[in-house]
Design goal:
mainly alpha
Amino acid sequence: MSPTTDNSRLTPAFSRVLVLLFLSVFINYIDRSNLSIAAPLIKDELGISASQLGMLLSAFFWTYSCCQLLSGWLVDRFDVKWVFAAGFFLWSSATAVTGLVHSLALLVVVRVVLGIGESVAYPGYSKILAVHCPEGRRGFANSMVSAGLALGPSFGLLFGGTLVARYGWRPFFVGLGSLCLLWLVPWARWMPATGRAHLSQEEGGPGMREILQQRSAWGTGIGLFCGNYFLYFLVTWLPFYLARERHFSLIEVARIGGGFFLLAAVSASLCGWLSDRWIRAGGTPTRVRKSFMVYGAVASGFFLLASVLTPGILSLTWLMLAGVSFGLTSSNVWAITQRLAGPKAVGRWCGLQLFVGNCAGVVAPAVTGVLLDRTRHFFWPFLIVALFSWLGALAWIVGVGPIEPVEWERRDRAPAAEALAYPAG
């Protein structure tokens, strides 16, 4: 499954792996968002406040953020196939166990373990795509990952909400976590092991200090933080907002939330294909990728704020447009990182970016819970999300330089002839 030239098509072997990556992020985002589906029921069952619920919803991100640096190092240093498989097993098992615990403290512990397992996901995705996927196809490949990101919450809200309403939230968690473990069977068969020569080459890549010296590394981290504040606010609080402030039934919440993330998935897939086509037609990666990031961030903040300020069907219209706008950014964010860092450093760069970016998952749910306890209204949380979206647009413009590969200094002494050469596919 060797990488190909920028104008070549994806190989059948890589296409199979890409399908598995899509399914894994689909499962990933069902697993991390399913607690928000059951949030109203859990709040009533355990008798906790909105602040405590916000703390529970953010617990996943405590370890998810902190472990990103370690996960980035692991996928650069060891075979990404088995690092990813271990993380997948851990997060699916934690999902199943969630349905068996009966206290707030144990729920927090299980969510912390879930965060450890899922921390390998995005460093692993970027490592695989940077090594095996050409620049001219990375928009599409990343859009498949982004589509899984959006379809996971969509499926979770639409079908998971229906199942929770009918059978309760505990059977949903146990069944989902157990079923998802079957994904490991085709992964072990189809994902090739990383060659020893390639692992040796990556050992000579840049260190974290060299990555920290890059302005674009900080720009991508801040940009991801702002985009994730938007995403994680909606993943964790959208069902609660629709149920308690807009007074929709649980079934209606499932349909509206599912529709939001479904539109985001369709938008991400289309925008990933369009960005690749634009680049192959002669557009520079800098102009193409930044255009999608900036316009998407500005529009998503505007539409989301409009949705909380308007009544009835118009509010839902603005909400759906915010989902479409989010798709513009999600299909291109990792293509930028993969091109900047290159195969040598993509795992560690991605780990640093995710460490900064996923701190939003710690902040957004907790801040929202505190504001709700004090104001009893979602206006201020929505306004803060919009402001972060616009700040993110500024980060992609100013904080990130030209989208061109960084020229890393070689740290190894091996002759160039010993480096692993990849033939055109």
